Amino acid sequence: MKIKKAKKPSLPRPAADAVAPTRTAAGTMSHGIAEWVFNFIILIFATSMVAQPEVIPTSSMEDNLLVGDHVIVDRMAYAPPGTWRLLPYESVRRGDIIVFRYPLNIKEDYVKRVIGVPGDRIHLVNKQVFLNGKKLDEPYKIHKTHYINAYRDNFPAAPPDYTLPAEALDMLEHHVVNGEIVVPPGHYFAMGDNRDNSADSRYWGFVPAENIKGKPLLIYWSYDASTQDLVDFTAGHFIDLAQHFFTKTRWKRTFMLIRGYPIA
């Protein structure tokens, strides 16, 4: 049997004291919620401004970036001098892998490799890129077709065999000198590493500097999924994840760093 302690006689207190504990508790709770909301907003802001997750939906950057690679993009890498940032500022260089707003639809993000910077002269001969008159050594690229497509592989000398958007036509009309593309100020020429299967600057023109969002830093997760599933997030994709998460995750690619290749 439990013995109950005798209650102490209650003493009269001023009316103000009676409500003081309630106000203190409410104030503490309100302060805690406000602080939590403030910290959450700061976290979201910092995440969106400094780093951003992206997923690779197409094969244009194989075999360096695969369909289903989920990457962290450093959005401050190319921030202008004077901007607060975690890592040192750097200019866009040849060989960098960049994430940018697609010039034909800025709501879409593309990832390609920078081949030419302002002032560079570029042309292709039988799939081989020549930069400022010199043949490029490109260990990062692959070719998955053996045939030669005139426009794709002998750019820009051969005429296109299909309709190009206005931006690409403008490039061919106003930025070709002696059979070479000349990259204008404030723009970049970008190509995919999967050279035979890449919608890149050959087909839609230059990348404006203001479209560049940053560069991918690392792969935080890689999952073997189709382009359709990654673009549309279909119900089948979620079912596939539930059934095959462990077997279709490419564990060896987890936290793999993404580096550019310096092009002299």
CATH class: Mainly Beta
What string gives the helices and strands in order?
A: HEEEEEEEHHEEEHEEHHE
Low-confidence runs (pLDDT<50, min 5 residues)? 1-23, 37-46
End-to-end separation in angstroms reads: 88 Å
Strand segment count = 13
What would you report as the Rg, rounded to the nearest angstrom? Answer: 28 Å
Q: What is the average of the pLDDT values?
A: 83
- Characterize the overall form: globular
Strand percentage lies at 15-25%
The CATH topology: Umud Fragment, subunit A
Describe this entry's structure for a reader.
With 264 residues, the chain is an alpha+beta fold. It has a single domain, classed as Ribbon (Umud Fragment, subunit A), CATH 2.10.109.10. The protein has six helices and 13 strands. The strands form two sheets. Strands 1, 2, 3, 4, 10, 11, 12 and 13 form an eight-stranded antiparallel β-sheet that branches. The protein has a five-stranded antiparallel β-sheet with strand order 7-6-5-9-8. A hairpin with a 2-residue loop joins β5 and β6. The longest helix is centred in the N-terminal third of the chain and has 36 residues. The termini are far apart. The N terminus is likely disordered.
In short:
The chain is of the alpha+beta class. Helices cover 28% and strands 23% of the residues.
Secondary structure topology:
Elements: H1 15-50, E1 51-55, E2 69-74, E3 97-101, E4 109-116, E5 121-125, E6 128-131, E7 134-135, H2 150-153, H3 166-174, E8 176-177, E9 180-182, E10 187-191, H4 201-204, E11 207-208, E12 212-222, H5 227-232, H6 235-248, E13 256-257
Antiparallel strand pairs: 1-2, 2-12, 3-4, 3-12, 4-10, 5-6, 5-9, 6-7, 8-9, 10-11, 12-13
